[in-house]
Each structure stands twice: as structure tokens, then as C-alpha cells.
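>> received
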Amino acid sequence: MSKRRSRKHKEEEEVSEAWLLPYSDLLTLLLALFIVLFASSSVDAQKFDQMSRVFNGIFMGGTGPLDYQNPIDVNTDHSSDYPPKSSPVLEEDDNQEKTENQKELTMELEDKKELQEIQSKINAFIEKKEFDSKFSTELTDEGLLLTIRDNVLFESGKAEVRAKDRDTARELAKFLEMEPPRNIIISGHTDNVPIRNAHYGSNWELSVMRAVNFMKVLLEEDTNLDPKWFSAKGFGEFQPIGDNQTAEGRAKNRRVEVLILPRAEATE
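>> returned
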């Protein structure tokens, strides 16, 4: 009787230990899951390869978690990856870009100051000649703009600068002597009244020739000016600054403009 009880007791012990095997497998899978979660935060090619070998071992013949205690290099300092340190090359590029931006800003400020000085000199000339109603200056984003009414330089419907006004052109040319030089654009403008004469078929032609002729006079009266820095344009009646419905507005639209460009554009 006691032998039967002893055998039964042994069988119960053997049955009761059967849960260890699935429990061990479960622990192995949980460990693998934690490894994946931990490694996925900073995975790279080397770590991915290590994890692959771990899973291959687990599912293709590994016996337990102790066979793969260290699939990821514990000596790797992950803290250095978060946040990533700036590359010395990138920092150098940033510093260089900041330096260039500062230099560019300094040049722009100096350039604007020079244009303001030129504007002051031209304004003093305008005041001396009492040309306030016929000349004007304006510092714009494009540069320093000098506007001259057409009746200061030309006869109505003509593009040749009057002989008596060449002195005015000569004095204006002195203000355009700059070192280093700047690009200067001279443009002609008209009102919208159609031109009717044998020389010009449209206001476009008249505006172009007025700009070209005035530019030629400036260069002839001042040999210190280099022609390569000058250009001429004609806009006809298509850039009015006054109302073409009134005589006063049309008078404003008939003009020649001298645009002195910023230094940055002159050197490009």
C-alpha cells in the first residue's frame, strides 16, 4: 500500500514539473520582445544584424535565454546619440555662413550710406539751381533714383538734348564719378499722348532715344565716366507716375530717370 502511494506521489511530482518547459519558452520570448523594444530606439545596421542572429538562434534551435545574454553591445554609449552632437564640419559651415552674412550686412549698410551721401550732394545741386520743381531724388530698394522732367533737357516731341542744357548734364555727370564705379541705368518715359512727327513713330521710340542721347551727353561731357557701366532703356507711356488725364500728370510722366544701382549689383 505504501509502495502505491509512493509511486503515485512521484507521478504527481513529475506531472507538476511539466509547466517549466512552456514557462521557460515564454520567458525566452518575453526577453526577445524586450530586446527588440530596447534596440528599436537606436537601431543601426550592426544592431539589426545582432538581433537577427538572436532570433534565428531562438527559433531555429536555441535552448534558452542564457545562450544569448548579450545580443547588443552593452558598452555602446547610447546616451551620446541623444541628442546627436553637432558635426565639427557643420559647425564650421554655420560659423562661416554667419560671418559671410555679417560681412554682407556690413557692406549693404556702407553702400546705403554712400548712396545717401550722393543723394545729399545732388539735392544741394538741385537747391542751388532752383530745380526743385523739375528734379527729384529718391532712395529706393533698387538704388538711388534721380528724376528729371523732360522740359529741362528737350524740346517737345524731340530727343536731342538742347545745347543750353549740356551744362546741366555736365554738372550732373560729376555726381556719377564713383570709385569703384556703379552700374547706372538711364530710362526715358513719356505721357500717353500719341506722337505725330516724321522722326518717331511711337512714344517708345521717343523715350528710348531720349535716354540714349542723354547718356551720350553725360559720357561726352565727362571723360572720367566709363561707358561700360552705363545702359539705356525706353518705357514709352507704360510706367506713368502721374495721371495722364491731367496736364500736370502728363508733365510728370514726361521724364528721364537716372538709377544708380547698389554696389553689390554693380560688382556682379
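>> Residues 65-69 have pLDDT under 50 and may be disordered.
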